[in-house]
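hey team, just a heads up i'm posting the complex here instead of the shared drive bc the drive is being weird again. everything in one block, sequence lines first with there labels, then the predicted structure for the whole assembly after. its two chains so it's a bit long, scroll down
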Amino acid sequence: MQVYMDNNATTMTDPKVVEAMLPFFSERYGNPNSLHKFGTSVHLPLSKAIDQVYKGINASDGDDIVFTSCATEANNWVLQSVWIDNVLNSDKNHILTTEVEHPSILSTCKFLEEQGMKVTYLPVNDQGIVEAHTVRSFITDKTALVSIMWANNETGMIFPIQEIGEICKEKGVLFHTDGVQAVGKIPVDMQSVHVDFMSMSAHKFHGPKGIGALYIRDSQPLTPLFHGGEQMGGRRSGTLNVPGIIGMGRALELATENIEATMALIRSKRDRLEDALLEMLDDVMVVGERDNRTPNTILISVRGVEGEGMLWDLNNALIGASTGSACASEDLEANTVMLAIGADNELAHTGIRLSLSRFTTDEEVDYVIEAFTAAVKRLRAISSSYAKVGPSPGGEAQACDLLYHHDNDIVVKH
Amino acid sequence: MAKDNLLGGSLWDAYSNKVTTLMNNPQHQGEITEEEAAAHGNKLIVADFGAESCGDAVRLYWEINPETDVIENAKFKSFGCGTAIASSDVMTELCMGKTVDEAVKITNIDVEKALRDDPDTPAVPPQKMHCSVMAYDVIKKAAGLYKGVDAESFEEDIIVCECARVSLSTLQEVIRLNDLKTIEEITDYTKAGGFCKSCIKPGGHEEREYYLVDILADTRRQMDEEKMAAAADASMTGDFENMTLVQQIKAIDAVIDESVRQFLVMDGGNMEVIDIKNSDDNIDVYIRYLGACNGCASSTTGTLYAIESTLKEKLSQKIRVLPI
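-- predicted structure starts here --
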């Protein structure tokens, strides 16, 4: 059996989505910008897909949802254009974000810092979230934008977007949220939150890769990132990715049409898996309150078992999972989320993320429980953390402090 | 960056088969107890290196014959990734049958080479070289415990890059000899900084005593100071070719003032030094004629020859004078 439990990285494209997309490759391939019927005949299915996306996040007709190539593009667009619109051309100079954002936010912020932007990276609490009052206390009259993710990719923890939105509205500050891990997983209702911009990505909810979108409240101004043929009402040039948009619309429809029931189904499997691991294994911990997590995610720390080693054994058992362990990254940098949670330094090296989907079966959950516990047993048998004979006098090693410090030292009082 | 790097590598694809095999089934994983060692009349040494909070840790067990100092049995325990476990395993094997003095000569490079499938292909990708360093460090720790000395005492030189085992003195020498100006050049010449990158600058995977950025800056500063000192000496001793540019201009002006200018002025002309370009073969002195000299037929023949030969004689045979 092979089991894919890395659905926060990407998901299988639902065959129903593929089916919806297929006619738009070799049959209805016209460019919607053309005047002839090859082009105009795709307008109707595109409108339907646009409706599906508006409905999926309950956007108003006065809002814009502009299709992009991915959420990385959407995140870059908001940050870079806020720099142009609200910093270069006004007296504001500050962005407020968190330490645990996706690299497409953090790296763009670093880039903007080099251009002169001031950025505050808020730390998260031991639950892995930023509290609304913390956000409030760091907004200044120089703040141009607050950018805080809706749900975290590593932990699944859901951030208080409604409260943060209210604070931003009250303070008159633009609010962007990276909704990639929330849209399609939990109810996202743009009419019940005050969010100016939201990024999303189809391949996280069983849509195709290469298509994402930026939600823009009330069609408010935002300088385009791409200039060219004035597609999408001039907001994002580039020939429309017709099959991608069709696929994204269908995928969001499928993900949200019965979202409460789908969530309950995924949650029951996730909880069963989580309960089994917590019960069968000693010295393990799961990050974040279950009720405040996306229903598909488990970030579990396994004492004495290094994350990449664990991933290796899971891979040998044909299970795809993920680790934030420094050893598994190209640059040996430990995962910022794990470090930021800061509950335990070892967590940065022992965290394994299991992320389910609506396609995960009970048999797969059973298989993962078995393979996971077997891997922990094998690796703990090798692990120095579980060795019985201690070091000779003088042979002990010093524990090390993690090399982790941000440029701005922020002390947050809870 | 080029075609091969567009996708980025899979770390695991770069592991040798031997690394994979040993990770899946380490041969020398386990513990040795005091009782077992005592039963053989041997001394047990157990040394730790690294910690779980650092991301990797290894514990090495040596059963040493006190008569011969031979490591008769060895085992390890490891908290770490695949390469850490495989490195520890092969390191443990390399120790067995050696005396403690022989074992301390095992380096991380020996460990990595022992993990290769074929001699010319690295066993692990560059950022994983770091794992073999820990295997090497724990040997020093165990040997130090056995001999009652500090583990550092086995190190003859200060190692700046542990992955590639490049010493401080080597780095300083290479920077000087090859006039290196960037970290990339240092990595190209010595491999230092090409693996886990901790030694390049503070803030990497682990804290280091020496960083390449500082060594480069310090060595360059020393080189500049020495160059200035040499130039100062040169002006004292009249060694024109080793002077700084400013000193060269001053020296040329002095010669021209003394031997040339008066003749030009007599004819209603003058000259000024515009620039000097030093190359291996020539020192090109660019001048501009002023007043009557400007356009004078002799300015490109006789006068020019006279200026050049005076400067050649008084300062350097490498001088060429070029009017512009």
